[in-house]
Design a protein that fits this description.
The chain is an alpha/beta fold. It contains 10 helices and 10 strands. It has one domain: TIM Barrel. The model has no long low-confidence stretch (mean pLDDT about 95).
């Protein structure tokens, strides 16, 4: 179902920054080495200012999916983001691996991160992106209970918002589907994320693809969405610790310029895009 976009607009685009800072690897590593922590320093002190300058240059409002740990550790950076007219969304408490949590712990961490948003940002977030880009069996219900308007973690579509459903899996019988959620899904894709393509984590992720190859992938997704999904949305995910690097921010600017060639592309926050949806 297409979005009710502003008059004269054909496609919505969101650039979402996952502002992980020093907790980027907390859900996957027991001990964070000085080298890993220094990558968080780069995110805060170099990557974030570079991204903010780039978005200001092209007058693009963005959504910063931010763990509670980043909020309370780097509040000055959060103020710089909000002063730039950007949205802050939930992204876990410390970038935890959500599928590995028990239900009680997941609920505790949700309460914790929401209190941290109220403390630092001054209000609860309207949207959520799972740090793991994945859910547990009870994540969707927790988001509904806390009144979230949207989620951006799942991959059931590519360029269309949708209402996710709880699925009960049966190996030898048809799966069972719950009712459509009150939470609107604004889907993501690993293909439109800078991290797997461009980053490098020794022993974990090779990354370091050619920026030309990465641009071609991003461009083709955008061009297909523009031509074939009027009233759709393209969600693009970046990280300051990745796209803040010199070669990567040049790639991001190149991609922005390509999308800006179309006058009827609407750059917006995920909450503003959510508000264009009607069932």
């Amino acid at each position: 179902m297409p979005l009710n976009l502003p008059a004269g607009k054909r496609l919505a685009v969101n650039i979402g920054v996952d502002f992980d800072a020093q907790c980027a690897f907390s859900g996957h590593m027991e001990k964070l080495s000085p080298a890993i922590l220094s990558r968080g320093d780069f995110d805060v002190n170099v990557g974030t200012p570079r991204l903010l300058r780039l978005f200001a240059k092209y007058e693009i409002p963005t959504t910063w999916c931010t763990p509670g740990h980043t909020l309370i550790t780097f509040p000055d950076s959060i103020r710089a983001v909000t002063d730039g007219g950007h949205e802050i969304a939930a992204h876990g408490a410390y970038h935890e691996s959500v599928p590995s949590l028990g239900e009680a712990e997941e609920r505790r961490l949700m309460d914790l991160q929401l209190s941290q948003h109220e403390q630092v940002v001054g209000r609860r977030p309207r949207g959520y992106r799972s740090p793991a880009w994945d859910f547990s069996d009870w994540t969707l219900g927790i988001l509904e209970e806390h009144g979230f308007d949207w989620d951006s973690s799942l991959m059931g579509r590519d360029f269309e918002p949708y209402r996710p459903r709880q699925v009960t899996v049966h190996r030898e019988q048809p799966n069972e589907f719950g009712p459509p959620s009150s939470v609107l899904e604004l889907p993501v894709a690993w293909f439109m994320d800078d991290f797997p393509a461009l980053d490098h984590v020794p022993g974990v992720l090779a990354g370091m693809m050619s920026t030309d190859d990465t641009f071609a992938r991003w461009r083709d997704n955008f061009d297909y969405a523009y031509e074939n999904h009027p009233g759709g949305v393209l969600t693009h995910t970046v990280h300051g610790l990745v796209s803040g690097r010199a070669h990567a921010i040049m790639l991001l600017e190149r991609f922005i310029r390509h999308m800006k060639e179309r006058d009827d592309v609407w750059f917006a926050t995920l909450s503003d895009i959510c508000d264009c949806w009607s069932d």
